[in-house]
């Protein structure tokens, strides 16, 4: 704020603050200016929230729905029509998606920096929507498997690009609440997926098309429509945006610059990518997200099948798959709010992971079906609480756009391995309890806790050395930067 113009004040004014034209008036004006600045900043960030989070959450919701609707389609009759129940055909068709999904994560984020978020994300949505639509017309399990390969390739760029984009707009300790909101919206839609699939399966026989085919056809059509919406509403990076005024853009860039000093992207080179890939902490985030994704995939692909194995009908199995996704809406918001408030991640991640372990054990080993079903609630509560925390933890401890590009890709890339493992260890012959699969998922949660503890201890040690002035250079090359634990 500029200094007051002293020609309006005499020396006596400065010595006698009781006069009307005194420094008290100047201080009051300064206070008013500060209050106005804070108000303007809050309104700007609220508009950023409204402009970015809902559209990303909606599109990612159908990204998840299109990815996980295999279980619902199987329950609705696809397994019989395409002979997927023979041997490991269903597992192979489910698993093969994740091979290209993993391979194209990092290249996708590199292309993002070239084409920009709007062009690249729109292309991703339109292509996977087309593949999803095409899945409604396959005639054998080989064709279904081929479409799953294409689906993995087309969806691969979306999630890491989305996380990367969100992290560029906010301060480090504002990220988890935002990720939690978008994650919860998508989680809620994921819970609605079985109900939507059941409703679409009721179209069985319309135009001589099987009900399970309608699931793919209509959901693919919706995704294509969202691809068009994506073109008009997905924002660019903050310094390139076209929906804020110059003053609002300056506010966003200033906040990010003061927080971590990377408001403007640094050049992305091959040497930088190689250097970032040598940082073991980036891979630790990937291991964490791999572990936290295992329960999500096991629930998504097999919950309706497990419920049907408990004795419920096809309809009830699909409908009862949705309620476990309800309670996390409240618990995740609370966990994320507290995590941002106290600027702490690891403790909340570990607590939520322990809740998830309890839920998995109940589903696997409890005798009563009601208790097993309750375990699905706890699994989702803990898993949904830990996932946004890991995404925030990883983005909080990275500086520069080039490193963030690699970090978000590596994190999500390794999560794709969870899909391969989940669709492999949950074998058809282990139905209806799937003990080996659930036991493997519990083991992954224990690995998650160990990885968080090791990484956090490493960051705590570096923070301590930095505060004591024992490091040769600032952390992450940014003066005043400290890792979030």
Automatic annotation (TrEMBL):
Annotated transmembrane regions: 52-70, 90-112, 119-138, 150-169, 181-200, 212-234, 280-297, 317-335, 347-366, 372-393, 405-426, 438-460
Top-level taxonomic group: Eukaryota
Membrane as UniProt keyword: yes
Keywords, sorted A to Z: Membrane, Transmembrane, Transmembrane helix, Transport
Domain Major facilitator superfamily (MFS) profile: 52-463
Short name of one Pfam family: MFS_1
Residues of the signal peptide: none
GO cellular component: membrane
Membrane topology, record value: Multi-pass membrane protein
InterPro entries: MFS (IPR011701), MFS_dom (IPR020846), MFS_trans_sf (IPR036259)
Primary location group: membrane
Any one GO molecular-function label of the UniProt entry: transmembrane transporter activity
Statement: the UniProt record of this protein carries the keyword Repeat: no
Subcellular location: Membrane
This protein's name: MFS general substrate transporter
């Amino acid at each position: 704020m500029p200094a007051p113009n002293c020609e309006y004040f005499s020396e006596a004014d400065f010595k006698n603050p009781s006069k009307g034209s005194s420094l008290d008036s100047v201080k009051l004006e300064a206070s008013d200016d500060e209050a106005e600045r804070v108000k303007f900043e809050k309104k700007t960030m609220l508009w950023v929230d409204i402009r970015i989070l809902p559209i990303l959450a909606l599109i990612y919701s159908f990204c998840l729905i299109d990815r996980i609707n295999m279980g619902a389609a199987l329950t609705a009759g696809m397994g019989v029509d395409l002979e997927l129940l023979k041997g490991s055909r269903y597992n192979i068709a489910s698993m093969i998606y994740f091979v290209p999904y993993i391979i194209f994560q990092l290249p996708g984020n590199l292309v993002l920096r070239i084409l920009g978020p709007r062009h690249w994300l729109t292309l991703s949505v339109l292509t996977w929507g087309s593949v999803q639509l095409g899945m409604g017309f396959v005639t054998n399990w080989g064709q279904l498997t081929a479409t799953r390969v294409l689906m993995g390739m087309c969806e691969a760029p979306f999630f890491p690009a989305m996380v990367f984009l969100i992290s560029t707009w906010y301060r480090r300790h504002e990220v988890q609440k935002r990720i939690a909101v978008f994650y919860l919206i998508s989680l809620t839609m994921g819970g609605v997926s079985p109900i939507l699939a059941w409703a679409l399966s009721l179209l069985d026989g319309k135009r001589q098309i099987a009900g399970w085919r309608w699931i793919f056809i209509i959901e693919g059509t919706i995704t294509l429509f969202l691809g068009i919406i994506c073109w008009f509403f997905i924002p660019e990076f903050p310094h390139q945006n076209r929906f804020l005024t110059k003053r609002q853009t300056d506010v966003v860039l200033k906040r990010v610059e003061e927080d971590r000093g990377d408001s403007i992207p640094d050049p992305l080179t091959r040497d930088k990518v190689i250097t970032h890939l040598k940082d073991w902490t980036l891979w630790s985030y990937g291991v964490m997200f791999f572990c936290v994704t295992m329960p999500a995939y096991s629930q998504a692909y097999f919950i309706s099948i497990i419920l049907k194995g408990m004795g419920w009908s096809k309809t009830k199995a699909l409908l009862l798959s949705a309620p476990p996704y309800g309670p996390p809406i409240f618990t995740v918001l609370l966990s994320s709010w507290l995590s941002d408030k106290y600027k702490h991640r690891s403790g909340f991640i570990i607590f939520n992971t322990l809740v998830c372990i309890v839920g998995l054990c109940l589903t696997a080993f409890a005798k009563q079906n009601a208790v097993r079903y309750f375990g699905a609630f706890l699994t989702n509560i803990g898993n949904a609480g830990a996932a946004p925390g890991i995404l925030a933890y990883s983005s909080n401890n990275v500086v520069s756009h080039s490193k963030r590009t690699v970090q978000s890709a590596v994190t999500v890339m390794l999560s794709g391995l969870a899909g391969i493992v989940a669709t492999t260890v949950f074998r058809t012959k282990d139905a209806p309890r799937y003990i080996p699969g659930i036991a493997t998922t519990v083991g992954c949660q224990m690995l998650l806790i160990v990885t968080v503890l090791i990484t956090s201890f490493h960051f705590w040690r570096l923070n301590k050395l930095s505060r004591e002035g024992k490091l040769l250079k600032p952390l992450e090359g940014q003066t005043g930067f400290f890792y979030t634990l």
